[in-house]
Amino acid sequence: MAIIDPRHAAKQLIYERVFRSATLSAAILVLLILGGVAMSLLRGAWPAISHFGFSFVAREIWNPVTDEFGALAPIYGTVVTSVIAMLLAVPTGFGIALFLTELCPPLLKRPIGVAVELLAAVPSIIFGIWGLFVLAPVLQRHVQPWLIAHLGHIVLVGKLFKGPPFGIGILTAGVVLAIMVLPFIAATLRDVFDTVPAMLKESGYALGATTWEVMWNVVVPHSRVGIVGGIMLGLGRALGETMAVTFVIGNAHRISSSLLAPGTTISSAIANEFTEAVGDLYTSSLIALGLLLFLITFTVIAAAQAMLRRLERRSGAAV
Amino acid sequence: MIPSTKPPKHLKMRPPVAVAAERTEDLGPPKIEIRALNFYYGDVRSLHNITMSLADKSISAFIGPSGCGKSTLLRVLNRMYGLYPRQRAEGEVLIGGRDILGPNVDVAELRYRVGMVFQKPTPFPMSVFDNVAFGLRLGGGIRGAELKSRVESALRDAAIWDEVKDKLHADGRSLSGGQQQRLCIARAIAVKPEVLLLDEPTAALDPISTLRVEETLQALREKYCIVVVTHNLQQAARVSNVTGFMFMGELVEIGPSSRIFTSPQDRRTDDYITGRFG
To answer: How much is the pLDDT for A279?
Structure first.
């Protein structure tokens, strides 16, 4: 039997205790910060909440002159731009990830992978400038007239593509957001697909499945938990993104049925107006917007968690 | 993959071809014919001039130390190596008289005809029923009642029907390891392949489950050309009609299992089955 120096053992015990309390306090710190943020948001937003009540989230009006504020337009803009972003970025991200893991020649694998990661490293202000000076004019001149001409007449869908091509607006913001969240989705999905055991994929091929069939029927179902996680990561980023959206969305507190019209999002409204907000109610209304964004992101994450739990329960003893 | 050391000099070397052709004829017409097969991982040759015939409706087992090329041989038979760059096979391999190595072979169709079961159970993330129906649905044209009856008969053939008939809609991964492996066998035979390849099918299973899988194989012998790679010599002796011993990428000898395990012709086979190496 090994003999342990009692003094050394005592020292070990102390180290162990210090280590435990250090990690514990780090973990508690997270809770404190989160609680603090929620509390101060609630306090700051209280004047607006008590003044407007529920109508704050139900009204479109935003008039600093008459001190009337409603959050419906920013909520609408936030949700719609994020939905557009996800509609564009999720299929593209899937494509990139599946290509990189299954089809890509080894020589191209690294360059494309690094490019995807570099895209994630571009600061959002750069996407904003690029969106305003490069993307918006291109959309205005080439894409939006086409959308208006070809989709504008279709029943129901046509409403989304009516009106003049401003260049900036909800659609442009959605496109910029899509580009911004794409690397996160693609990189996460690639890592998730990489973890699918080769033997499982081979089992699919061994039954005569094509690459597409193995991808769709084996790899994707196997990775669904990770896929939901990757998409939620992207969605969370799209909901909260401020700078680039502020550049290209047009900043109009208005809900238009057309995606080509200018609009606003919660975060861009706050960024735009905070410095010029005079009066307690105005400031408080902006903070209330922040509280709403907090709630929306929280709901998204909670919904994702619930979805994951349901998926896991359905797959029985798996994982 | 391949040990770089040369075999010890005292081992008697003899060309494997003569032995291979020898005594497998009484098992009926060959299903698989392999002539002068060489296999390369990049520049490394891992199969050397393999020539042999394997009979239909019988179980052929391949034994040999790790890295001897037996799994590689299986992966040639369904072109699985083709998924990976820098792996290539040269020579001639016929299954049911049809060349499988040529450039114009429809690989998906080949793999549909040649089923495979792996070292570890690989149930797909879906229900027991969908697992077995997977290949049938890929093939298309089989639906409804016919699909149900094909799934049932595959599960019966794989001797797992009684255990899963009440949980066909449970996730395949919720079964025990041995059940999962038999589920994978059912999945492979559901499409009625001409050849069934098994790569160490019981390597991850406990003795009881191993026994069940072996019984399953015995029952399937009548219908299929079965090729099984195994590290378990007793298993090869128990289940197979023909056993081939491979060593360093060569087929050292192949013959009726009763003979290989009682009076092997090659010194290396003798050393391996008596446990002197490997």
So the answer is: 85
